[in-house]
Amino acid sequence: MTSIETTRTGDDIDEVAGVRFADPYRWLEASTEEVRAWQDAQGEAAAAYTRDWPYFDRLRKLVAHYDTERFGSVPMVAAGRWFRMEPVAGSIRPSALVSEEPYGEGRVLFDPAAENPGKPPFLSWISPSPDGTVLAVGVCADGSERNTIRLVDVSSGALLPDAPTQFLRDNWTGGAKWLPDSSGFFFTGTDDDPVSSAHEVWLHLRHGTPSTAAVDVPWLPGGDYRAVVASADGRHAVAVQGLFTPVPVAVTKLHDPTNLAWREFVTDASLNLAGFLLGDEWIAVTDAGAPRGRVVAIGLNSTTPDDPGSWRTIVPETDVTVRAVRPVGDVLYVHEFVETYSRLRVVDHDGAARGMVPLPGKGAVGELPFAMMNILGPTPTDQLPFAFSTLMSSWGTYRHRPGAPLLETLRKPEVLLEDCVIEDGWATSADGTRVPYHLVRRRDVLLNRPRPALLYGYGGFGAPWVAQYPGAMSAFVAAGGVFVHTNLRGGGEFGRDWWHNGRQQAKQNGYDDLYAIAEDLVATRVTSPNLLALTGGSGGGLMCGVAATQRPNLWRVVVPRVPIFDLIGACRDGYGRWIVDTEFARIDDPDEVRRLATFSPYHLLRDGVDYPAMFIEAGDTDPRCPPWHARKFGARLQAATGGDAPVFIRIWSDSGHGWATDKEIVLTQQTESLAFILKTLGMIPPERPPVAAE
């Protein structure tokens, strides 16, 4: 138990679809001085506990060494020049640069510190105009991901006037999506409510007097993500709707951007068609009629675009998972998963084989977690630059040209887990499904007795948990622990069925998968419950809360990051309601709401149970998983737990969901959470990163 005083309770009741729930800590949802004082006291106690550990500073150096970008970024080329985001001059905060080569000596175009030296904003995204004369950038001031656009003259580095003033919710819709003639760009804005699910597409034109106007598209019903992007040849624009299963809902000719005449295209929202306009066809990956995925083409003039039987199949379904397709020159690059590891193959526009790309190892080709996010960036032309990582190496950047026998290395991985090994394992879940996982350990850490183990997972929204470098968690491996990368149902590693068998009424399957992996590790004496740690963020933070409340005796320590814990209360705001309704339960059905409560961690807590040690971390400006989830669950847990395991709540100022959090804050966050894990498990970090044996 912590030494913090017991938090007061109230008599509030929450109600969804007529089902009522006690909500004793509702007052912690408010933004009041009392809540702020409570939050500050909790944070001070958490910080004091981790810094009282004598190895905190040593761990901080390890974390700084191992931490790298979460998702592999790739420089963007426009008119022969390359644009990228990268720290300069000893800073750890990225600036926007331009150079003549992908990673050539860069000239700074936008430095956040120049905009506000006292409190530099976060650079969320960059997007160069096709002619290379203007760079659009997104700037977030408070870690919340809400950003506004700046326009930079590439030749002079000066800010241009009359940039759009609308807020963008995040960088998930690609920022500025330029017209091919560089006359303007589409972007997706939002309203003033940080937790709404509103999306509105705007067109900003630069020729003549700059103007910004809303784009009137025949969108499908619902509050899902929306975006408009122009085809590379400049003939059409397509409106895409759906973050997890994008659909090209409408198309228009681009003869006159000020007078767009939209016509409906694919209007069945249940279809999944993540792709690109190529000539007169939409080329996309779909799981319609193919749970593992296939590549299809739909003619823009098709009279039956909603009929999967009328589509032209380019790459048929096989036993591997087709994840994405990218047109480059006269070929298509197809990204696939083979038992969770990436593969890139090349086909022509009719599907005829044109070879395999020789990847640097068994790992992950860089992609963003949700399908829509991967189709809104710039379309490659004559080359495919891409990021690649393994469980032991950070993101490197590579380039492949159609027909080339070899891969070009543009930038080698900056960080390696030296003298380590990767082992693949499979566990059997409660319903008999085989579930994969990967172990990473130092070569000299033999599995001849139980070792400290840290499980890391997600299992939601169809997002594949790719076999990539674990970043700051590598410090756990360096300290002699076993890192366990899990692949749970609800993700997208094995296609549509893997997702659907871990969502909605099957959501519990993903949590059972996690328990099966943990039990397999205990049964094989890799670890034991008193040495078992669990962490995850966002949906993975929910996973942590579910695991700690459903199976408290399975874990020694659990660290949820930016979690959602109160799935009933989440339904009271637009964004939370959309998330719950999309992935967890149909909240207009009382029986579904009752099922939702069976894995809502806030509602699962019971007095007198010996819960594991927990360090609950959230961001004060997080619009996706607002900090009140952590506050309410943490307060209830502190009051309920019957054992002496510590429970801490750490809410960070000027920090959101992690997509726009200042790097210095991120390093401290990661150090505190790992310090809590290592301190609880009795581990000692090395003074410096291990080096490879001679």
UniProtKB/TrEMBL annotation:
Q: Which UniProt keywords apply?
A: Hydrolase, Protease, Serine protease
Among InterPro entries, the record links this protein to: AB_hydrolase_fold, Pept_S9A_N, Peptidase_S9_cat, Peptidase_S9A, Prolyl_oligopep/macrocyclase
Hydrolase: is it a keyword of this entry? yes
Q: Does the keyword Nucleotidyltransferase apply?
A: no
What does the record give as EC number? 3.4.21.26
Q: Which Pfam family, an example, fits this chain?
A: Peptidase_S9
Q: Which residues form the Peptidase S9A N-terminal domain?
A: 7-365
GO molecular-function terms, A-Z = serine-type endopeptidase activity
Q: Which domain of life is it from?
A: Bacteria
Q: Where is the Peptidase S9 prolyl oligopeptidase catalytic domain?
A: 474-682
Protein name as catalogued: Prolyl oligopeptidase
Question: Taxonomically, what lineage is the organism?
Answer: Bacteria, Bacillati, Actinomycetota, Actinomycetes, Kitasatosporales
